[in-house]
């Protein structure tokens, strides 16, 4: 199983980025998918998750209304559209897959992780 995250970069506050996570070697549609992030000196935290069908999503409060998670099961790709970025969004962002059928936030339920992509937001 390979998860390739991309789309990170440096932007100014208020800008946008779109992260992608391409999966190979796995049944993409069979997993719940999530995005997590880890800022320097902090623990990895939940950002967003999407159900197997894509019909249900969940977001941490700090990104609600600004970030949108989506998936394309035909392309085996997960996305995170990030708008109105803030300096506190600066982190390494990871995609991850969970075999749990419902949307879940806890990292321990995710057993497939991408390598991470760095997002830096300057003020």
Largest sheet: 7 strands, mixed
Strand % is over 45%
CA-CA gap between termini = 37 Å
Please provide the count of β strands: 11
Percent of residues in helices comes to: under 10%
Q: What oligomeric arrangement do these chains adopt?
A: single chain
Q: Specify Rg, calculated over alpha carbons.
A: 13 Å
| Broad structural category | mainly beta
Shape: globular
Q: H/E element string? A: EEEEEEEEEEE
Could you list the spans in which at least 5 consecutive residues all have pLDDT below 50? none
Q: Can you describe this structure in just a few lines?
A:
The protein has 123 residues and is mainly β.
Fold and architecture overview:
This protein has 123 residues and is an all-beta fold. It is built from no helices and 11 strands. Strands 2, 4, 5, 6, 9, 10 and 11 form a 7-stranded mixed beta sheet that branches. Strand 7 (67-72) and strand 8 (77-82) form a beta hairpin.
What's the SSE blueprint?
Layout: E1 2-6, E2 9-12, E3 17-24, E4 32-38, E5 45-50, E6 57-59, E7 67-72, E8 77-82, E9 91-98, E10 110-113, E11 117-122
Parallel strand pairs: 2-11
Antiparallel strand pairs: 1-3, 3-8, 4-5, 4-9, 5-6, 7-8, 9-10, 9-11
